[in-house]
Design goal:
2 copies of one chain form a homodimer.
Chain A (H helix, E strand, L loop, with lengths): L2 H31 L6 H8 L3 H7 L3 H25 L3 H14 L3 H14 L3 H25 L6 H21 L6 H15 L2 H6 L2
Helix pairs in contact in A: 1-2, 1-4, 1-6, 2-3, 4-5, 4-7, 6-7, 6-8, 7-8, 8-9
């Protein structure tokens, strides 16, 4: 590799690393003070960078939230794709539940709660939240449909699981000592009952 | 009644009416802009009163939130007591679910979501939210225990219902068009299954 090519690669990975660093700083700020209360100046201070430098990477706080959502989605996809490549959709479903609920940190749950709250009065954030909802619904519905007995309504099953999933995150955000175990077991039981057929699917609706 | 006594009563009901009026204004402000963004000045403007006058009724925004929580609780209690006096605990349970979920307004759901969010970083609000959680848990657990088949674990059943209830409110806050019907039916089905005995109670955990 020529010295010049090496420099280009370093600069690129440097920019990617810088973006990651800013996203980490943003996550810390948003969890501590909320999206609305956090300024680009706070973010720059947390990241130990100049505000001007932050703006080179993200043009607004909303752009930072899009960056966080994309990163979260990309991280989940790596896990899911590895499991789906192994042909194990049930394992992928189980892995996603494990990742989002059992392994979820309180900080992550607070960030989610804060964005839901902000979405009720900030259309840009509402659009990001809505896109995440749509992507999650599409993935879950497809995965549940592939696993379900004939006649099971995967969309209705996901609609039944969705508020329970949200409520688990709310409890995690509100209570540092919240044990997600029973609620995650409940989620798994609803999935099992829903997948076995339309009768069981009806029972949980 | 003497003229003087009449004046005292008028002044009292005037003060109560003024408190109600301030709470209505606060609800409107909090729903529109969130608890954190709302100042006592905003509240005074919304109520068409002077800030000094507002402080005669509520010493802080937190005191206003306590006032809102007390009012919400009192309104629920009137409904519940009427049903419980009629000896119908099942009707009271059904009425509470109807009131809090089917009849819930989007504004009410946004207010709740906002307070949960604020509770993650404001200890005074966290204490108010926690008290509401404790009171709701006590009432539900007692009511479920009175209705349940022997051996049913009412506390575990409530723990299973709680995140679903919260998630229904999140969806209502996020989406003006959210149909609570299926999720409320799911809530009722979980209660029915849970009340019939420990085996069914286990199935939903």
């Amino acid at each position: 590799m020529s010295a010049a090519a090496g420099t280009v690669i370093d600069a690129r990975s440097g920019a990617a690393a810088r973006r990651e660093h800013i996203l980490d700083a943003a996550e810390a700020c948003f969890v501590r003070n909320g999206f609305h209360r956090t300024t680009m100046q706070d973010l720059a201070r947390e990241a130990a960078m100049s505000p001007g430098n932050i703006y080179r990477y993200f043009e607004s706080k909303e752009a930072v939230v899009i960056g966080l959502a994309d990163r979260e989605w990309a991280r989940g996809e790596i896990l899911v794709e590895a499991m789906e490549r192994a042909g194990d959709r049930r394992g992928a479903l189980s892995g996603v539940i494990e990742r989002y609920f059992t392994q979820a940190t309180r900080a992550g749950a607070i960030l989610r709660l804060d964005l839901w709250c902000e979405a009720t009065r900030n259309p840009a954030i509402a659009a990001i939240v809505q896109q995440g909802e749509d992507e999650a619904r599409a993935w879950f519905t497809e995965t549940l449909a592939a696993l379900a007995a004939p006649g099971c309504d995967a969309a209705a099953l996901y609609a039944a699981l969705n508020p329970l999933m949200k409520g688990i995150l709310v409890n995690k955000a509100l209570d540092a000592g919240y044990d997600v175990g029973p609620a995650v077991a409940e989620l798994r039981a609803l999935i099992e009952a829903g997948l076995t057929g339309p009768a069981a699917g009806e029972a949980v609706r």
